[in-house]
Amino acid sequence: MVAKSRKQTGKSPTTQTDRDKNQLVSPPGKSNARRPGREGKAFPGFHPNGLAGIRHKLGLTPSAVVKHGLTLLLAALTGYLHWLHLSQLFENDRHFSHLSNLEKEMAFRTEMGLYYSYYKTIIEAPSFLDGVHLVMNDRLTEYPLVINTLKRFNLYPEVVLASWYRIYTGVMGYFGIPTKMCWSINRGDGLTPVDSCEGMGDPAYFYVTCVFMLNGVMMSLFFIYGSYLSGSRLGGVVTTMCFFFNHGESTRVMWTPPLRESFAYPFLVLQMLLLTYILRTQNPSKTTMVALGVSNLCFMLPWQFAQFVLLTQVASLFASYILGYLSPTKMQSILVTHMITLAVCFILMFGNSMLLTSFYASSLISIWAIIAMRDHFAQVFKAGIIIWVMQGLAWVGSTVLLKFMLSTILGASDDAHISGLIKSKFTSYRDFHTLMYTCAAEFDFMELETPLRYLKTLLLPINLLVVVLVAGRLVYHSLQLVAFALLAVLIMRLKLFLTPHMCIMASLICSKQVFGWIGEKCKNQIVVFAVMAVMAVQGLANLQAQWAIIGEFSNLPQEELLDWIQDNTGPDSVFAGAMPTMASVKLSTGRPIVNHPHYEDAGLRERTKLVYSMYSRMSGETVKRNLMKLGVDFFVLEDSWCTRRTRLNQRSPDPEAPGRFVRLGGWGLRSPDPTPRLRGGLSDSGAGV
C-alpha cells in the first residue's frame, strides 16, 4: 500500500485479377467530372464551394458523405476505446503512475529495456543529432565492439519518439506550460520514499502513451477493414467486438509496450487493408500502390520478423495467381512494390544483410521469374493441376536455392537460429540456441487451450463457416488465414497474427454476398446480433478477467543491485550475465555490457554462449578465460540457473533465487561481497525474435 502526496508541478525540460469479376464488394466509383473552374479570385488552397466542392472533387453524393463520415466516426470511437483499454490495463498491472524513474525502467524487462535504453540515450543527449550519433556508434551494448544499433536493432521507433519528445518538451518549456506532475511516494515497510511523475513530460509516460495511441489507431483501421471487407458497418462492429472479446489472444501490447510488434503490427493492418482494395480494383492507381509500399516500409522498419510475415503474404498471393484468381499484371505490380520497399528498407537499415538473404527476398525474385516464364510453363505442362503443382515446386525450389546462394555469397548467418528453431520442431535436433528459445513457452507449439478459447467465443466456428463459403471468392484471405494458422501452431507467440485475422474474417457474416441466402437485410442483421449476443457471454467474461488484474510493480532486490552498481563500480566497468539482467544494467546504470537479449546476430549468439558457460560444467579456469576474452570486469551470477528445471528439463532462473557479483581478477573467480538478491521477471530465457 502506498501513500501518494503531491510534491510539485514540474515544467518540461528544455532539453531533451485476382478474379476481379468475383469481387464481394464493388470498388468505389471514380468521378469523371472535371474539376470546377475558379470563379473569380480565391486564396490559394481555398475552394469557393467549401465542403461541397471537396465532395464534388471526390465524386461523393451527399448520402455517401454521410455514410463515410459515420464510418470514420465509429472507427475513431473504437480506436479511442482501445487506447483507454490498453492504458488502463497497463496501469492496473504495474501501478505505473506511482513508480519512480528507476522502477519504470525496471518494468521494461529483457529486450524491452534494451530498446528503451536507446530512446533514453537520444532524449538525454545534448542534441537530437548527438543522440542519433551515439546510437549509431554504440560502445556500450557489445563491448568492446562499436556497433550501429539502428542497423542491428530496428530502432527507428525510438528515434522518432525521441524526436517528438524533444520537440514537445522544448515547445512546452518555451511557453512555460507544465507537462508533468511530480509526487513523493511513501512506499512503506521501512523503504525510502521515491519521487514519481505523471504526464507527457515524463519520458516513460510519453513513450508508452504514444505506443497505446498507435494501437488505438490500429483498432480504428480494424473497424474500417471489417466494414470494407463485408460491405457493412456492422461488419466493422463484429471485427472490433471479436478483437475485444479475444483480446488476450490478439495482442500483448498492454503488457509489453516497447516490443517491436507493438510498433509494426498497426502498419500491417493498414497494408492488408490497402492490399484488399487493390485486389478488388480493376486498375489500382499509382497513388494506391505507393501507399501500399509506404505501409510495407513502415511495417518492415520496426521489426526484424516482418520479412517472415510478408513471405506468407507473397506466398498466398502467388497461390491465388496459380489458381487463376489474380492476373499476372496485377501480381507483378504487387511484386514490384514489395521489391522497391525491400530495397528502400535495406538502405535505411544501412545494408542489413538479413533482408537480402531472407526467404522473403528470394521468394520475390523466384515468383517474378516464374510469372515471366508463364508461357513456357504453359507449353511444357498441361493446364490444370499439373501446371499448378509444377509452378509451386519451381517456387519452393528456386526460393530455397537462391536464399542459400545469397547467404553463402554474402557470408550471412544471422537468421540461422530461425532455421534451427523450425528444425527442432520436427526432429530431435537441439543446440544451445534452440534450447534458449524453447525454454520459453511462447516459442513452443500452440497450446490446446487456445483453440478452446476460440471455440468459447465462437470465433473458431464462425471462421470455419466463413472459409467454407468464401474459399472460391476470397482465395487470398483464406490462404492468408491458413498461413497465419500454421505460424501460430508452430510458434505460439505468432498467434498475434492469427487471432486478429480471424476477427477480420468474422466480419463476413455481415456480407450480403456471402450470407444473402439467409434472406432480406433485416433477417441477416437479426442473425448477426444473435451471434454477437452469444459471443458476448464468454467475451465479457474475458474482459472482466483482464480488468480484474490488479498489481503493483516492485523489485527491491534488483533496485538494490542497480544502486550498488552505480555506487561501487566505475562508468567503464564491463558487465556480463543473463540476458534479461544485462538489458536492465545497460538501461539504468549506463555500464558497458557484452551480451543482451536481441538474439538476431551470429556473433552475439556466440558471445552469449561464452557468457553462459558460467552455468556449465566447465572448469573455473576455462570460464574465466572465456570471459576475459570479452573484457568482462563483473559477472552477475544468478544461482537459480543451476537449480530450477523447466518442462523440457532445461535449466532456467528462479525469480526468488539469489544473485551475486563475481569479479574477474587474480587466479580464479571470487565473490568478494554479499550482494542483493535478483528476482522479478528473470524466469524467461531472455532471447527474443
Tell me the major beta sheet. Answer: 4 strands, mixed
- Unreliably modeled segments: 5-48, 647-660, 663-689
Question: What is the CA-atom radius of gyration, in angstroms?
Answer: 27 Å
> Average pLDDT across residues?
84
Bin the helical content. Answer: 55-70%
Question: What would your notes on this structure say?
Answer:
- The chain has 689 residues and is mainly alpha-helical.
- Among the domains are: 206-357 and 412-548, no CATH class; 556-663, no CATH class.
- The chain has helices at 51-58, 62-94, 101-107, 110-124, 128-136, 149-153, 156-174, 203-230, 233-245, 247-250, 260-280, 286-300, 306-322, 328-348, 353-356, 359-372, 374-380, 385-410, 416-426, 432-438, 449-456, 459-470, 475-490, 495-506, 512-515, 521-547, 556-568, 579-589, 602-611, 620-629, and strands at 3-11, 178-186, 194-198, 575-577, 634-638, 659-664, 669-670.
- The strands form 2 sheets. Strands 4-5-6-7 form a 4-stranded mixed β-sheet.
- Strand 6 and strand 7 form a beta hairpin.
- The longest helix is centred in the N-terminal third of the chain and has 33 residues, at 62-94.
- It is a multi-pass membrane protein.
SSE blueprint:
Layout: E1 3-11, H1 51-58, H2 62-94, H3 101-107, H4 110-124, H5 128-136, H6 149-153, H7 156-174, E2 178-186, E3 194-198, H8 203-230, H9 233-245, H10 247-250, H11 260-280, H12 286-300, H13 306-322, H14 328-348, H15 353-356, H16 359-372, H17 374-380, H18 385-410, H19 416-426, H20 432-438, H21 449-456, H22 459-470, H23 475-490, H24 495-506, H25 512-515, H26 521-547, H27 556-568, E4 575-577, H28 579-589, H29 602-611, H30 620-629, E5 634-638, E6 659-664, E7 669-670
Parallel strand pairs: 4-5
Antiparallel strand pairs: 1-2, 2-3, 5-6, 6-7
Helix pairs in contact: 2-8, 2-9, 4-5, 4-7, 4-28, 8-9, 8-11, 8-24, 9-24, 9-26, 11-12, 12-14, 13-16, 13-23, 14-16, 16-18, 19-20, 22-24, 23-24, 27-28
